[in-house]
């Protein structure tokens, strides 16, 4: 056991504990909602859930990653992180404001096409995105400073509150999707407030963080992150758009995806420490450490994905009925497709971290663009609604992983020592992109 723990990147256990609680909260959240809501309401909640985490993670996870990367580089050079946090928060606020304007313009369309006429879910969507913006920005600081106990605490409070709030809704017999969606707003905001002390201490001090060092990489990273979330979440939304009258399939697909993506929750605990670890090795020019950490991460997610695939394929149809009261519309074949896609997606996520640590933002974005094109092409193939989105997810994920492997292997960039201050100021200069 001790040898196995030594294989994990630093901080994995601390973050993993909080993430385990947050992951459990997802199952409790959807499970209680699935048992209490009508099929049409659960379908609307499923679409809301998918949009929140597609857009929210797509826009704000890149800010967390870039803040973590630049804070880690400053930490290596003995510089305070406050200016990076300030810049990251300003960018998150600007993105949130822009998306708010989009919601104002498209609110009526979203209400009718995706939320079955329930306009309150559009407001929940806006609130949930605001909560994710605040949470991910602060997590970037905590990760970059290697304050993983604080990071894990924020995740754990978020998850614990979701479980408590949803349990209260269930005991009260609440049957409105609005209240189950509102949990996605309240829980992360409270978790940020409870873990504010190290964030507040980091504010201010140190030389300014150049806007260019954050923005040049961030644009490409947002493209990658948004497309990554599209690949993993668009199936539920597509099922609703392809067949609006089939309220069972969208809800069943979300329940199935949450089940087969258990390994992704585990990877998230690795990701918080993997990127800073790879970036530190790249900054120090330590090729051996970089390759060793990458191999260990790939080995861990492969084992997780393989075990998860077997369990989901054999027990998936039964589990979604028991846990989420999902309609019996998916078979073991459906779960097999989703499980294979999740394993390939895990490979893509790890390889993407390696490319990003080498400042390969352009290469990472290219891989996700190619994979999304493959997903869209398969979605257009005439098949049943469920099979169409499942095969598209799997093919898209495989194409992304294969593209990243080729780009990483063909890269001629070598990891050479870079002074930490230079890393902060100019690591995202145009010549560093591939």
What does this structure look like?
Keywords: Cell membrane, Membrane, Transmembrane, Transmembrane helix. It is found in: Cell membrane. The protein is an all-alpha fold and 434 residues long. It has helices at residues 2-7, 12-36, 39-76, 82-113, 120-144, 148-171, 177-194, 197-202, 211-242, 247-260, 262-284, 287-324, 332-357, 361-379, 385-410, 420-426. Helix 10 crosses helix 12 (287-324). The model is unreliable at 412-434 (pLDDT under 50).
The ordered string of helix (H) and strand (E) elements is: HHHHHHHHHHHHHHHH
Residue share in helices?
A: over 70%
Question: What's the total count of β strands?
Answer: 0
Structural class: mainly alpha
Strand content: under 5%
Quaternary assembly:
single chain
Low-confidence stretches: 412-434
Largest sheet: none
Radius of gyration: 21 Å
Number of domains: 1
The N- and C-terminal alpha carbons lie at a distance of 40 Å
Mean pLDDT: 84
Organism: Micromonospora sonneratiae
InterPro entries: Poly_Biosynth_Transport
Subcellular location: Cell membrane
Membrane topology: Multi-pass membrane protein
Strand-helix topology:
Blueprint: H1 2-7, H2 12-36, H3 39-76, H4 82-113, H5 120-144, H6 148-171, H7 177-194, H8 197-202, H9 211-242, H10 247-260, H11 262-284, H12 287-324, H13 332-357, H14 361-379, H15 385-410, H16 420-426
Helix pairs in contact: 2-6, 2-10, 2-11, 3-4, 3-5, 3-7, 3-9, 3-10, 3-11, 3-16, 4-5, 5-6, 5-7, 6-7, 9-10, 9-14, 9-15, 10-12, 11-12, 11-13, 12-13, 13-15, 14-15
Subcellular location: Cell membrane
Organism: Micromonospora sonneratiae
InterPro entries: Poly_Biosynth_Transport (IPR050833)
């Amino acid at each position: 056991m001790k040898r196995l723990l030594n294989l994990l990147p630093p901080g994995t256990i601390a973050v993993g504990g909080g993430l385990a609680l947050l992951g459990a909260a997802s199952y409790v959240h959807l499970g209680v909602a699935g048992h209490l809501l009508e099929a049409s309401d659960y379908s609307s909640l499923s679409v809301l859930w998918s949009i929140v985490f597609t857009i929210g993670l797509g826009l704000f996870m890149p800010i967390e990653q870039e803040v973590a990367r630049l804070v880690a580089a400053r930490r290596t050079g003995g510089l305070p992180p406050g200016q990076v946090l300030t810049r990251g928060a300003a960018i998150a606020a600007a993105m949130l404001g822009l998306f708010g304007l989009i919601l104002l313009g498209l609110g009526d369309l979203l209400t009718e096409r995706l939320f079955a006429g329930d306009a309150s879910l559009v407001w929940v969507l806006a609130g949930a995105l605001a909560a994710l913006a605040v949470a991910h920005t602060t997590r970037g600081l905590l990760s970059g400073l290697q304050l993983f106990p604080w990071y894990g605490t924020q995740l754990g409070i978020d998850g614990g509150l979701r479980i408590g709030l949803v349990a209260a809704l269930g005991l009260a017999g609440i049957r409105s999707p609005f209240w189950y969606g509102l949990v996605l707003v309240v829980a992360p905001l409270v978790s940020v407030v409870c873990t504010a002390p190290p964030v507040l201490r980091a504010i201010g001090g140190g030389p300014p963080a150049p806007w260019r060092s954050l923005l040049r990489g961030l644009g490409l990273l947002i493209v990658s992150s948004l497309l990554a979330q599209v690949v993993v979440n668009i199936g539920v939304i597509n099922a609703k758009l392809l067949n609006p009258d089939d309220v069972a399939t969208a809800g069943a697909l979300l329940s199935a995806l949450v089940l087969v993506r258990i390994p992704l929750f585990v990877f998230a605990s690795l990701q918080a420490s993997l990127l800073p670890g790879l970036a530190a090795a790249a900054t120090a020019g330590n090729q051996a450490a970089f390759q060793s950490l990458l191999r260990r991460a790939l080995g861990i997610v492969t084992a997780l994905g393989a075990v998860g695939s077997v369990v989901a394929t054999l027990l998936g149809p039964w589990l979604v009925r028991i846990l989420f009261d999902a309609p019996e519309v998916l078979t073991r074949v459906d779960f097999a497709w989703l499980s294979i896609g999740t394993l390939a997606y895990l490979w893509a996520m790890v390889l993407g971290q390696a490319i990003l640590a080498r400042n390969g933002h352009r290469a990472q974005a290219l891989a996700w663009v190619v994979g999304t094109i493959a997903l869209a092409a398969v979605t257009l193939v005439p098949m049943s609604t469920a099979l169409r989105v499942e095969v598209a997810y799997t093919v898209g994920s495989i194409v992304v992983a294969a593209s990243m492997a080729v780009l990483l292997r063909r890269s001629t960039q070598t990891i050479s020592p870079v002074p930490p201050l230079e890393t902060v100021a100019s690591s995202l200069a145009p010549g560093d992109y591939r």
